[in-house]
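Researcher: Next sequence.
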Amino acid sequence: AIRKLNTIFPETAFQRFTTDRGKEFSCYPVIEEDLSIPVYFADPYSSWQRGSNENSNGLLKEFFPRRTNFDHVEQEELQKALYLINNRPRKCLGYRTPHEVFMEEVLHLI
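Model: Next structure:
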């Protein structure tokens, strides 16, 4: 998924990744080497180091409560939830949406 996103957006759109220590990023050396994008890991039990991510997880739980089995969630349902989350105005962004802010940044890179 990271490789695909990296081909869609300008090269400099993704400058670094910060993640938790989950197994989904066990291949981080490949990402760093192949895409030249450094990967950083938050300290254990330090969710404030990934505040935006934690906030997004909370918003996602409005649609899919804890222990939701995503094997039974249709792709369309997940995409609709992500669309609504990414197009929801945020006070911290001056009441713009995350999508608007991201696209403004991407357009500055072109």
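Model: Residues 75-86 form the longest helix (12 residues). Helices lie at 2-8, 28-35, 51-61, 75-86, 98-109.
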